[in-house]
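Practice problem: predict the structure.
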Amino acid sequence: MEVDDPSLRLTALCLAAHTDFSTGRGCADMDRIARECGLVPEALFPVLDQLANSLASWSMALASGDLHWELLPKGKQKQRSASRSDAVTNPES
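Answer:
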């Protein structure tokens, strides 16, 4: 993933550090992840949405406050990024 925004890079790194790479999934307290990324909790959700090239999915359990995510496999990250680039450069395809 190539991102210029430091908050995106830091969040991607933080999620990767908390991911079980045998499953590609992670779970951690949302407040903890936000704090480790230097964000207020409300600012974490838009950042996660912007990481769509790296995340297969993410969700938050309201009852526990836990953030759950699943990383895309490396090959899929490149495919998703390329397909988004094609859509931007060639919107009629």
